[in-house]
């Protein structure tokens, strides 16, 4: 299953946005106020949103100023969340990509909540 967010624009430079996203503790600032967030280590965190199971993510890969890849920890849901960062006339633009290998039933159940999650992250990036 492949999903993508809209392009989110921020006044931060690509370098500032990249540095923000590679510090996983900053993801708590991108999530809604009612989301559960727990830092599990320097590069790992757990989050929970209404209507979704709690998910653990870790920083898997990063390319300075252009890409940040987070991956799931655990066997329940195996997926990656990639932020592609580009320069924009007013700062930086980022688009989020979710990739996961799920059976048809699971994909149908999580598509809505994952799309909502991507939208919330995009909104958070725009507020930076």
From TrEMBL:
One of its GO terms (molecular function) is glycosyltransferase activity. InterPro entries: START-like_dom_sf (IPR023393). Keywords: Glycosyltransferase, Transferase. This is Orotate phosphoribosyltransferase. The lineage of its organism: Bacteria, Pseudomonadati, Bacteroidota, Flavobacteriia, Flavobacteriales.
């Amino acid at each position: 299953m492949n999903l993508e967010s809209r392009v989110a624009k921020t006044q931060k430079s690509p370098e500032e946005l990249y540095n923000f996203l590679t510090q996983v503790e900053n993801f708590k600032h991108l999530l809604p106020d009612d989301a559960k967030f727990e830092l599990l280590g320097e590069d790992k965190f757990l989050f929970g949103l209404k209507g979704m199971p709690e998910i653990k993510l870790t920083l898997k890969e990063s390319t300075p100023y252009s890409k940040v890849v987070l991956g799931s920890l655990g066997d329940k849901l195996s997926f990656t969340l990639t932020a592609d960062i580009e320069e924009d006339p007013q700062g930086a633009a980022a688009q989020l990509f979710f990739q996961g290998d799920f059976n048809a039933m699971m994909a149908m159940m999580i598509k809505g909540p994952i799309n909502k999650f991507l939208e919330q992250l995009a909104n958070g990036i725009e507020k930076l």
